[in-house]
Amino acid sequence: MAGSVANSVVADRVGVRFWFDSHRRVTTPGRARLAFHPQTTWGLQDVSFGLGGGEGLALVGPSGSGKTTLLRVLGGVLAPDAGELSVRGSVGSLLSIDAGLTPTLTGRENAVLLAVLAGLSRSEAREALPEIEAEAALGEAFERPASSYSQGMRARLALAAAEQSRPGILLLDEVHEALDHEFRLRLVAHAEAILAAGGIVVAAGHDHEILSRLCNRAVWLEEGRVKADGAFREARDAYLKAHAAPAPG
What we know:
This protein is an alpha/beta fold. The chain is built from 9 helices and 10 strands. It is globular.
């Protein structure tokens, strides 16, 4: 539960380096060093910020700016190559519509898998199946392979499973932008409940209206670096101004 620990996130000059082979494919450092001319790039550099319970942080910036990379670091998917990161509290993630979904499994089978990934035991996940089925509102498609699902259907199933837990830290990566209006409101309510219980929400995306509801603060990322960190509207407006199209003339 979000209120069972003092939830916090502290990033101190965090950096993430990506290695590429001779074909410019992402690879491991060991394999890259075997190449004649291994290449690297920093996905994040010198990223620092701190968050406490009840805070919502929006990550804004253009595509490729490092938002998803930072969320993956916070979620433990990637380890920092530089700096230090401290994350206190259970972490729940909706980092991708397809994250955790197995295309060959049915919606019902995927629901169990997603609920376990959200922090439930296998028995708890099975007990939650009727509620997940009702909340996902997929009808007969719940018994069909997920490979037949639309983007919105996948997002609804992931949300229905995620709603079964109340993590201390919730990470969102544009998944809300694949949801219809009703399910967006549900996701917002889910995130607001986590914040009210002393949890933390970190959300990335381009739907600034939704982000403004969940986040009182924003970090503007550009080429993996922090360009601004402050009140949501101030940081967001600075980003939008910097990327505004020049006036014709």
